[in-house]
Amino acid sequence: MIEKKDLQFDYIQSCVVPYRCINNAIEFLMITSIKKKKWIFPKGFIEFNLTAFESAKKEAFEEAGVIGENDTSELGSFILIKKSGKCLVKVFSMQVTKELNDYPEKNLRRKKWMQLNEVIELSDSREIKQVVNKLAEQILRSR
Which domains can be identified in the chain, with CATH numbers? Predict the structure, then answer.
């Protein structure tokens, strides 16, 4: 989690963890980054006139072709050091209600529904692994 020394950052992004529940199993939708082809969740800059969650939902549509419920929870946030500076990333959950065949970045990325263990194995981010575990626990508790 964020410590006091980390409260200063250069910009903010929002990230969404799209998920669905099928046959008592939780699946998470990951996409590949454009340049390095790493497995990530949709993420981007918070757009003017949008909340962090609205912006994250827009990224989910543009990058993964999914639409979700408006009920959400902020799973947490973390600092990401990039070439462009120190970035605060706010992470939200989104239960997917519709998956589209056509979307803006369809030809730029791969996407795949994964179980929790596969997300943990393929993600390079310790923070993302923590928030996905937290989300899985929340979903299981709510059943």
Answer: 4-142 (3.90.79.10)
Retrieve residue 16's tokens.
């969404």
Q: Which residues contact 139 (CB under 8 A, 6 or more apart)?
A: 19, 21, 26
Report yes or no: 45 and 61 within 8 Å, Cβ to Cβ: no
Q: What is the pLDDT of residues 18-48, one digit of tens each?
A: 999 998 899 999 999 999 999 999 999 999 9
Per-residue pLDDT tens for 88-120?
999 999 999 999 999 999 999 999 999 999 999
The half-sphere exposure of 31 on its side-chain side, counting CA atoms within 13 A, is 24
